[in-house]
Amino acid sequence: MDNPTAVISPLFCFSDHVHLSIVRKPIISASGFLVTDEKGNNMFNVKEKMFSFHGRRVLLDSKSIPIATFRKKILSVHKRWQVFQGDSSGCGGDLLFTTKNSSLVDFKVELDVFLAGNKEERSWDFKAVGNWLEKSCVVYNKDSTPIAQMQKKHKLVSTAFGRDNFHVTVHPQVDCAFIVALVVILGEIHEDKED
């Protein structure tokens, strides 16, 4: 891929494949998700905004700087989420993208992603497709080229806490923060189905 695919920030587009571990932390933890690289270095955290009616989550970089805020749309049949730049309340023109769960089948993963400029949503800009029971998923760009793959990591720790632990491979020049945001949204949609 010659041109970087930057949705949240080009700062998170790297020249080589990036292998991430995404762990949903136990409920008692202050962080919803912890994201590390293959060397164990902290890359991102996702924290829940307390007392949020819209289930807001904030994606923080390794220095705890907010880089994106997710907000689920209440009473949405398609489990829609909106993602905004930084620690936004979503009131300004800082929308980055929206997602729509295009499959209403519990185990099937099919998430359509529409960039902020794609207001009519006649066709998706990115798509995540997979099987939630197997915890596997592939993210495609508009040209149907794979840009990231997710699979379940089987570890005693994740089983003991009942939380998800994923391995994600992000292709070169693809925004890692964007891919992390999609995996978190998929995890939240799945959690909502189980509640």
UniProtKB/TrEMBL annotation:
InterPro entries referenced in this protein's UniProt entry, alphabetically: LOR (IPR007612), LOR_sf (IPR038595), Tubby-like_C (IPR025659)
PANTHER family: OS07G0230700 PROTEIN, PTHR31087
This protein's name: Phospholipid scramblase
Similarity annotation: Belongs to the LOR family.
Species of provenance: Handroanthus impetiginosus
One Pfam family named in its UniProt record: LOR
